[in-house]
Specification:
Elements lengths: L1 H25 L19
Length: about 45
């Protein structure tokens, strides 16, 4: 039982480390906003 919890703790730590490195590599994933304006001409029949 002790061996199981040791492996479980090690696996949790390893996955946390991989997630931390991946987040540091990818960085901020928030979208970049920009205002876009374009003139539109409407014609009515």
């Amino acid at each position: 039982m002790r061996k199981f919890f040791g492996r479980l703790l090690l696996m949790t730590f390893a996955l946390g480390l991989v997630g931390f490195v991946a987040f540091a590599y990818v960085g901020d994933l928030s979208p970049h906003y920009a205002d876009v304006s374009e003139k539109v001409t409407l014609t009515l029949k």
